[in-house]
Every structure is written in structure tokens, then in C-alpha cells.
Amino acid sequence: MIAELIRSCCGLELLAVKYKGKNVSIENLHQGFTHIFESTFESTEGVAEYVAHPAHVEYANLFLANLEKVLVIDYKPTTVRV
Amino acid sequence: MIAELIRSCCGLELLAVKYKGKNVSIENLHQGFTHIFESTFESTEGVAEYVAHPAHVEYANLFLANLEKVLVIDYKPTTVRV
């Protein structure tokens, strides 16, 4: 079910997801999280539009209902090292 | 103390941290996490070298001791959308 939802997520052109992947960390600090989705937006307004978009809301409700836990973090990246 | 540790982290040339930032998500799904560090490596071997490096171990021990909680996830990014 999760695998299917992940596939359907990435078929939705609206969604801004740029990269996805499964956790492979050797540090054992992943706290049970297994999948990662990374998106990039031009602005915080862009994030807000995305979050509020009906297609996102519909997908998020379905996706979240099938997840054991979820963590969402947004940040404005400060470049430390290129 | 955390702010100081974050500054010192980014002064360490060894560290592979590329971007840093504070959580600004409006979704309230950040589970109390406040800061993000993002690094990119050429290979999983590169991650393992970094994790095992004495300077990383020393810094990580100091840093982790001052954090309420931490989450580390590594993933090989599959491009979903460019």
C-alpha cells in the first residue's frame, strides 16, 4: 500500500517532489523513518500554495492515513559549503 | 549553546554539511525538530568515511549530548522531477 501510494505520489505532476529515496543510514538514528521526499520551492509563498492546493490536500489525507508516522520540515537553506 | 555548536559545526572544514536552516514549516508536522543540516556525498562509502572520521565522532558526541532529540536519514536520491 505504501509503495503504491509512493508511486502515485510521484505520478502527480502537481506535486513538487524532486527527489525520493529509502533510508540507508548506518548511524541508527533514523527513529524508524523509512522514506524521504525532498522538494524545492522558489519561495515560502510557493510552499504555502502547494500545501493548500486541493490536489495536495486530497493526496496528503490519503497518504497520511496510511503512514505510521510523518515528519515535515521546511527550511530556507543557508549555504555552508558548496 | 546550540547556536554556538551549530556555528562551530560549520567552521569545521572536514564536515560535509552543505546547507543548514531552521524549520519554518506551516504544516505543524515537524515533531519538535528545529534545525536541519543537509549534506551530499559522492558515494555511500563517502558517508561511512565521514561518519567514522575522528573529527566527526568528536563533534557528534559533543553535539548529540546537547540535543533534545536527533534524526539522521541518508538516502540515495532518485530524481522524481527536475
UniProtKB/TrEMBL annotation, chains A, B:
Residues 1-75 form the Stress-response A/B barrel domain. It comes from the Eukaryota. Gene3D superfamilies: 3.30.70.100. Pfam families: Dabb. SUPFAM superfamilies: Dimeric alpha+beta barrel. Homodimer. This is Stress-response A/B barrel domain-containing protein.
